[in-house]
Specification:
The chain is of the alpha/beta class. The chain has helices spanning 2-7, 15-34, 60-71, 90-100, 111-122, 144-151, 166-172, 199-208, 236-241, 267-275, 278-282, 286-299, 305-308, 310-316, 319-335, 376-387, 412-417, 421-426; strands spanning 42-43, 78-79, 84-85, 104-108, 127-131, 137-138, 142-143, 154-158, 180-183, 213-218, 246-250, 261-265, 341-350, 362-371, 393-394, 396-398, 401-405. The chain has 18 helices and 17 strands. It has a 5-stranded mixed β-sheet with strand order 4-12-11-10-9, with helices on both faces. Bound molecules: pyridoxal-5'-phosphate.
């Protein structure tokens, strides 16, 4: 402001006027910093598990557990029966064992931490052969080769991008081989002339050589998804039954829980992993464990998942219901938009997201807003206005139009109640 006054570009003159302007600006800035920057938004991107929007939403029972754990002392590491020190994992271990058939389980901050901790515990300074078809990069800078390097083990590439055979694993094994690894190719698929080795075969080879078989499952599905009309993914229980000694997976992908990573498998190996000093740096807090335990408890009663667990509820929401919702909202939206916009209801495809089942989409329906004059600038301004609503609306731009995929819109009243703000934002 001082520069503006000195250069004469400011039209405001006079001590009083300038002081007023300064106070006004400072006031605006202070009230801005007083508000939380982390806000609830409407996820109308069509990506159900959107990493940038915080992935899975917790079910009611987990939200209640989180509130209780946050505001009270809890027996996090205290055995109420014996009155002595207890185990943090005790709140989730039995549940995971029951749901996966694993002998033991522990939880850490996320699946990246799980993978790091497993390598660092079981393969420090030793070799791990990995198929060239599984050298995965997950968004947000998680790369299997880089995590392996930081964990202190040596990656040995085997096979080819499209084909890896059992003999490639066999040839790679020597006295310095720590374990055999399989990584779920979460966010891509290799098609055409391909071949990968089954879990059962790798497990057999690992057992013969007396080394553990570890699988990074990524999403880690606990139930058969085909019952919900989704492509079948292998479940954690299936790969453990096939002979995996350790399995790692995320808590906030298909599982639908809080951000965390789960390590499940053989008890002697999980015990070793728990004793790694890095575990302390990677362990989850009471709030995460409270939420995870409630989400896992829902899985004991799979019939309730479709109604109680938001992630499964969103997957299974019928397209007809979504289309009816679009029809209800389309005239309202268009009544708050300037005439230069055209609004219609069109079918689209939702994605599961977070690298879960990357190839298949789920049929859905969207409200599509285009510019009558096909101006990109109009669509950019509209997307800005949507993000500046009281509760920001995040859609996606597709073929020069703004798409609002309604699959994940549950609070319709709040959504439509704030549409009137668009008028001022776009005038
Ligand atoms: C997502 C994913 C990870 C990382 O999991 P986060 O929970 O996001 O840390 C690791 N490996 C695979 C195969 C994944 O899909």
């Amino acid at each position: 402001m001082r520069e503006e006054i000195i250069s004469g570009s400011s039209t405001d003159t006079g001590q009083k006027k300038i002081t007023g302007n300064v106070l006004q600006k400072v006031g605006n800035m202070l009230s801005f910093y007083d508000k939380s920057t982390l806000k609830p938004v409407f996820n109308l991107t069509g990506t159900i598990l959107h990493t940038n929007l915080g992935r899975a939403l917790l079910p009611e029972s987990a939200i209640e557990a989180v509130i209780k754990a946050a505001g009270n002392p809890v027996n996090l590491e205290f055995d109420l029966e014996q009155g002595e020190r207890g185990e943090r994992d005790s709140h989730i271990e039995t549940l995971i064992r029951d749901l996966t058939g694993a002998e033991a389980a522990t939880a850490v901050n996320n699946n990246a931490a799980a993978v790091l901790l497993v390598f660092n515990t079981l393969a420090l300074g030793r070799e791990v052969p990995v198929s060239r078809g599984e050298l995965v990069e997950i968004g947000g800078s998680f790369r299997i080769p880089e995590v392996m390097e930081r964990s202190g083990c040596k990656l040995v590439e085997i096979g080819a991008t499209n084909r890896t055979h059992l003999k490639d694993y066999e040839k790679s094994i020597n006295d310095n081989t720590a374990l055999l690894l399989k990584v779920h190719t979460s966010n891509y698929s290799i098609e055409g002339f391909t071949s990968e080795v089954s879990e059962i075969d790798i497990a057999g080879l690992a057992r013969k050589n007396k080394i553990p078989f570890v699988i990074d499952m990524g999403s880690g599905c606990l139930v058969n998804l085909s019952q919900y009309g989704l492509p079948a993914e292998q479940t954690v229980a299936q790969v453990i039954a096939a002979g995996a000694d350790i399995v790692t997976f995320s808590g906030d992908k298909l599982l639908g829980g809080p951000q965390c990573g789960i390590i499940a498998g053989r008890k002697d190996l999980v015990d070793k992993i728990r004793c790694n000093p890095l575990k302390r740096a990677l362990r989850p807090d009471k709030i995460t464990l409270a939420a995870l335990a409630e989400v896992l408890r829902l899985y004991r009663n799979p019939d309730t998942l479709e109604t109680e667990l938001p992630t499964i509820r969103f997957f299974t929401r019928p397209q007809e219901t979504i289309r009816e919702q679009c029809e209800r909202l389309v005239t309202q939206i268009s009544s708050f938009l300037p005439d230069r916009y055209a609004v219609s209801v069109e079918d689209c495809t939702s994605q599961i997201g977070s690298g879960a089942i990357p190839v298949e989409g789920i049929p859905s329906t969207a409200i599509v807003i285009s510019s009558m004059t096909r101006e990109d600038e109009d669509i950019r301004r509209l997307a800005d206005a949507m993000r500046w609503l009281s509760r920001p609306v995040i859609g996606r731009i597709h073929n020069g139009s703004l798409l609002l995929d309604m699959r994940c819109l549950e609070n319709e009243t709040e959504f439509s109640g704030q549409l009137k703000e668009l008028k001022a934002l776009l005038s």
